[in-house]
């Protein structure tokens, strides 16, 4: 049992039927305890301004961190908007809010602005929370904390079981959360997702402190909270699954036209783009360059249960791409703004390849010693960029400045600088 698990040994957490267990879930020899009901039961869904005002008042009067989660309808609806927001705070209990009925939660965000928010995999939920007016100034990410602490499995269910000794039912994670009304089993699942988040946060804080990593985690959390919204992807159509098969520019043009038409239709109908037309079908049409609707209908993804009108609109997109002048066709690949793929380094710059090999070995060694994933110790892209184009004068100050310039946090700079200085001065580089 880790120190993190020790922190829950005298907990009053509630399990089946709302009764306190004899201990906090599992012991070293015992089986984990199923967590079947929220301790105050399933709260009603907040779906009007009066109920929202009551939640705002209750959470403003609560104490300690606030657990926050959001459910989206990925794979069912267009975009990544929130369809349910769950919160829990000491003194306020649990709230389930319908952001479709209450699309502006900025008042709630405002009363919680100085409070630490506890999220699991925060970067997944922050964009959809920001859209409805909820932006934390401080946060604690239990997934990232688990990574830094060296846990091999960092999903919420695994963390709650391994750290607290409780089993969360995860059967509704991929359902269509845009469904209205939401079924009671889904609401129970949603409420349980925030039931133990603060308890998990407290246990992980103690474990990180025991390992000497708490300050590192706090720097990471601050960086997540301070990060600006992500820039829109350039040429998102290039991420179509199966694009590696598409080589010719005319074919790339077909992918672009079909992808953009699919996106417009999906947005208008508010459905997942994959439900309009699959990536596989887009690539199939690009490779075949069908001459007419009859040929298109014979391709995988187009013929089965697709009406004549639909086929004609897809064929029109293909025809537009086929009619484009060469100058208007997309170029293969995307403009390279950084170093080339590492597999090409040995031919392009053998010295850089030697630097990268030494850097990777050094980073791996430090990460293994600290029991954390390499990508959490330092971004692989940062390592590649510095190895491809090192500072003109390689020393601790210049390498530290380069790391900081690429966004590395102070704790990462301190740990990785010696490794990179050694790699950048390796013999043969």
Keywords:
alpha/beta, 9% strand, 48% helix, two-stranded parallel ribbon, flat
Structure explained in plain terms:
The chain is flat, with a radius of gyration of 26 Å. Strand 6 (116-119), helix 4 (122-131) and strand 7 (138-141) form a beta-alpha-beta unit. 48% of the residues lie in helices and 9% in strands. The protein is of the alpha/beta class and 429 residues long. Helix 5 (142-149) packs parallel to helix 8, helix 10 packs across helix 14 and helix 16 runs antiparallel to helix 18 (380-388). Residues 1-29 have low confidence and may be disordered.
Strand residues, percent = 5-15%
The portion of residues assigned to helices is 40-55%
Radius of gyration: 26 Å
What is the helix tally? 20
Strand tally is 8
Structural class: alpha/beta
Stretches where pLDDT is under 50 for at least 5 consecutive residues are 1-29
Kindly state the mean pLDDT as a whole number? 92
Overall spatial form: flat
Distance linking N and C termini: 46 Å
| Biggest sheet layout | 6 strands, mixed
């Amino acid at each position: 049992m880790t120190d993190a698990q020790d922190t829950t040994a005298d907990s009053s957490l509630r399990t089946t039927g709302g009764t306190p267990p004899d201990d906090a879930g599992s012991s070293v020899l015992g089986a984990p305890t199923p967590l079947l009901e929220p301790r105050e039961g399933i709260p009603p869904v907040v779906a009007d301004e009066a109920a929202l005002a009551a939640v705002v008042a209750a959470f403003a009067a609560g104490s300690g961190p606030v657990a926050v989660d959001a459910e989206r309808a990925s794979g069912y609806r267009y975009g990544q908007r929130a369809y349910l927001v769950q919160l829990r705070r000491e003194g306020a209990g649990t709230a389930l809010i319908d952001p479709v009925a209450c699309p502006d939660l900025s008042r709630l965000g405002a009363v919680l602005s100085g409070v630490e928010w506890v999220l699991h995999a925060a970067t997944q939920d922050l964009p959809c929370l920001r859209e409805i007016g909820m932006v934390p100034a401080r946060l604690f990410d239990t997934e990232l904390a688990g990574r830094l602490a060296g846990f091999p499995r960092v999903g919420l269910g695994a963390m709650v079981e391994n750290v607290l000794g409780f089993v969360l039912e995860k059967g509704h994670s991929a359902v269509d959360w845009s469904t209205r009304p939401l079924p009671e089993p889904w609401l129970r699942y949603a409420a349980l997702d925030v039931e133990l988040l603060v308890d998990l946060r407290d246990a992980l804080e103690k474990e990180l402190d025991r390992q000497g990593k708490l300050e590192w985690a706090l720097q990471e959390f601050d960086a997540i909270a301070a990060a600006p919204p992500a820039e829109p992807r350039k040429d998102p159509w290039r991420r179509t699954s199966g694009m590696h098969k598409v080589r010719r520019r005319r074919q790339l043009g077909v992918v672009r036209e079909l992808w953009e038409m699919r996106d417009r239709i999906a947005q208008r109908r508010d459905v997942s783009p994959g439900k309009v037309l699959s990536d596989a079908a887009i690539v199939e049409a690009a490779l075949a360059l069908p001459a007419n609707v009859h040929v298109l209908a014979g391709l995988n993804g187009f013929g089965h249960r697709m009406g004549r009108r639909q086929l004609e609109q897809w064929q029109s997109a293909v025809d537009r791409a086929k009619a484009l002048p060469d100058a208007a066709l997309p170029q293969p690949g995307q403009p390279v703004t950084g170093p080339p793929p590492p597999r090409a380094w040995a031919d392009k710059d053998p010295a850089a390849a030697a630097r990268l090999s030494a850097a990777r070995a050094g980073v791996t060694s430090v990460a293994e010693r600290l029991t954390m994933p390499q990508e959490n110790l330092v971004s692989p892209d940062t390592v590649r960029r510095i190895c491809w184009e090192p500072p003109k004068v390689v020393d601790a100050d210049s390498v530290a400045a380069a790391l900081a310039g690429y966004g590395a946090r102070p704790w990462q700079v301190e740990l990785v600088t010696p490794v990179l200085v050694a790699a950048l001065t390796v013999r043969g580089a």
